[in-house]
Amino acid sequence: xTSQAFFSSPEDCSRAFYEAFSQAxxxxxxxxxxxxxxxCCVHPSAAPLYGFAAVRAAWEAIFRNSAKMRIELxxxxxxxxxxxxxxxAVEWIYVGDEPQPRGPVFVTNIFLRAPQGWRLLVHHAxxxxxxxxxxxxxxxxx
Length: 142
Fold this sequence. Notes:
By secondary structure, the protein is of the alpha+beta class. It has a single domain (10-128), classed as Nuclear Transport Factor 2, Chain: A, CATH 3.10.450. The chain has helices at 10-23, 26-30, 52-65, and strands spanning 40-42, 49-50, 69-81, 84-95, 102-114, 117-127. The chain has a 6-stranded mixed beta sheet with strand order 2-1-6-5-4-3, with helices on one face. The radius of gyration is 15 Å and the shape is globular. The N and C termini lie far apart (40 Å). 23% of the residues are buried.
């Protein structure tokens, strides 16, 4: 596992995650994760990954096989409960020098307050269908 910085808020942890992503810095990116087998990461259109080793291996492959990427977050929403915070957003991904972003990707990040500060417990990214009517996301199914 990796040594971790102290994140005093879930927002600080989130900023560190996206900064590490944009720098393709595997150690810094893994420093935001909780260090246990309960973590879960789902990349767009991929199977869920569970546990620190599996999550690290996937990010290592992404950084090794991809151009540098930068993510712009839009439509962010935060929901806090005691010791846990959920963050929803739409990611637009800029790859290398491409002028147009790829996406959109809907992301849910779940942060957990741990003795060593806030940590990322779940990162779930899913392709977002475009061209839907404005109220399409407001349908309640259950």
